[in-house]
Structures are given as structure tokens and as C-alpha cells.
Amino acid sequence: MKIVILGAGAMGSVYGAFLSRAGNDVWLLDRWAEHMDAIDRVGLNVTGASGDWQAFPRATTNAGDVGPCDLVIVAVKGPDLAEAMQTVPDLRGQDGAVLSIQNGLGAEQQLLGVVPKNAGFVGIAGGFGASIPEPGHVHHNGTELVSLAPLSKEVLPRAEAIAQVWTEAGFRAMAVTDAQRMIWSKLICNAAFSATCCVTGLRIGQVLQDDNAFSLAAKCATEATEVARALGVDLEIPDPPDYVRRFGERIPGAMPSLLLDRMAGRRGEIDFINGAVAAEARRASVPAPVNSALAELIRAMEAHDPRVKNCHIPEGSMAVS
User: Fold this and answer.
1) Whole-model pTM?
2) How many CA atoms lie less than 13 Å away from 26 in the CB half-sphere?
3) Which of 10, 121, 122, 276 has its CA 20 to 30 A from that of 146?
4) CA angle, corner 150, sides to 178 and 59, nearest 5?
5) How far apart are CA 199 and CA 132, in angstroms?
6) Please, how many CA atoms are within 13 Å of residue 157, restricted to the half-sphere of its CB?
């Protein structure tokens, strides 16, 4: 299968490495020229949970080099999604599928603007803990889960076939029918820890150990759960604080990407996580004051660049997705 990874940062590079090693014709497409050049010249070095090995996907900064593909995997962050979607029609073959894997909300609407409903799929990924120590090198802590859902339930068999491609590449992958349940089940965890870690500079395990920090996280999770239910999302989360605590206990050393973006002075995904919860709460006439306040605080931080400067990132430190 010919596959292009649109957005070959840490997560996209892991996807591309595994899918390439499994024998697929894989292209990595990203605007980070140093990373693409290194991969194109000597291959992609992979270290971490899967061992030390090398993959040889093709890599470029120019979409025109790629040509039509059977599967387009969109792996950019939320703020870059709208721009990335403009490239999708040029990359998707006549009968190609497009799978968009992001944190938070918004991917479905963006997909429907560029592909037929029966060719669009949304996904979530968790437990990877990926980073790029240097151009041409990706490190990961695991390959816990990739879930994907079709925008049209009539093409569930196609979603299952795409999941099988991931499974054959070494991932734990599954196709599900309820996209909203899948997305919100992860968003609740993202909402709990992303903004809380970002404003405190704490890792997830430290949030769990601090009563004040976990109180914030628990309130974000509870609000997000109530918003989802008000929107008619079918969730099996009777106790949101316990749900996110158990999630956090599996990855205590992790830093959410929102914190790492803040430390680097980059724009993060707050509008797609806690900000999205607040926006959906207004639409559903449900209160979400903690998510709203944290989103406003982080937007102000981003506007004036007050970075979390005293939070050291040891070499090889992982972000959680």
C-alpha cells in the first residue's frame, strides 16, 4: 500500500517507520527540512520500546514529489490542521482513504471539507510517548493503541481493513463504529492533564500527587464528561476523576505536548482541547468554568511567552499524546 504521513513530527515519524518496515511504500511529508533531509539521506533511526533499528521511508518537504496515495495519514497538530487539509486532495488517489489522527476536536469537520464522507476516517493514538532527539532520529516509549472510526458507518469494513494495515505493522489497532465516543473518551484525559500540566509545569505523576493540581485536573475531566453527555455522546465513565487518575497512573513521567510547546515558546493545542470543551459547553448550555478559565490563561501565556522556564526536560524525555 502506498501511504503518505502528512506531518512527520515525533508521532508521524513513528507511524511512518513501522508502516515502512512492514513493507508499505511510505512517504513522510513535513516542512521540517533538516528532518526530511536526514531521513532521505540515511534513513530514519528508531529507538525505544521496539528496540534500536532503522527504517527507510521516503521523505520530502514537497507534496508534488509524492503523487497519489492509497492512504493519507494526517498527523499534524490541531493548529496546523486546516492548512494541512488543503494538501490532502493532491495526495489522495482516486479511491484513496484519509485518516486524520489528532488530539481534541475538529478533525471530522476539516475532513468533510476535502474528502467524500465514505473516504474519511478519524483516529486517536495513545501511549506512544514519542520525541525527536535530533533530525533523522525518533524515540518512542510504546505503541499502546491506535483506534479509528469511519465518518460513515457504512464503510466500517474499510476501517477494519485500514486497522489491519496498522496491526500488521506492529501496532495494537482497532476499528470502532462510534467516532464521538472514541474522541471524547480520550479528550477527557487530555482536558484533565494538558492545561493543568501546562500552567503548573508538573508531569502527570506529579499532578496526581498534588491535591491542588489534581483537583484542577479532576474538575476539567468532570466538566468535559458532562459536556459530552449533554451532546448525546455515549460514554462509560461513571467516575471521571477515577477514570483520569487510572489513565495518569500508567504514564506518570509523561509531559503533555501542551506543556512542551509552552516550554519551547510554541503555539499549542489549547483551542482543540480545554478550549474546545469550553466552546462545546456553551453550545450545549452546560457550565465548564474551569476548562474555560484555563484555556483563557494559556492563551494569555502564549500571547506574552511566559514560558515554564524552571522545568528541566531531561534528554530523551517523552511527551504523551
Assistant:
1) 0.89
2) 29
3) 276
4) 130
5) 24
6) 1
Amino acid occupying residue 60? T
pLDDT in tens, 101-136: 998 898 899 999 999 999 999 999 977 778 899 999
What size, in residues, is the chain? 321
Pairing of strands 53-55, 44-48: antiparallel
All three cell numbers of 94, joined, read 482516486
Angle at 231 between CA 257 and CA 284, to 5 degrees: 90
Looking at this protein, which amino acid is placed at residue 210? D
* Residues 313 and 263 sit within 8 Å (Cβ to Cβ): yes
What is the identity of the amino acid at 237? I
What is the C-alpha end-to-end distance of the chain, expressed in Å? 26
User: What pLDDT digit, counting tens, does each position of 150-176 carry?
Assistant: 999 899 999 999 999 999 999 999 999
Alpha-carbon gap, residue 231 to 226, rounded angstroms: 9
Q: With beta carbons less than 8 A apart as the criterion, state whether 61 and 33 touch.
A: yes
- C-alpha cell, 139: 524515540
Helix then strand then coil, % of the chain, to nearest 5: 50, 20, 30
- Grid cell at residue 15: 507511524
- Strand pairing report for 145-150 and 120-126: antiparallel
Q: Across the chain, what does the average pLDDT equal?
A: 92
Is residue 129 a contact partner of residue 319, using CB atoms and an 8 Å limit?
yes
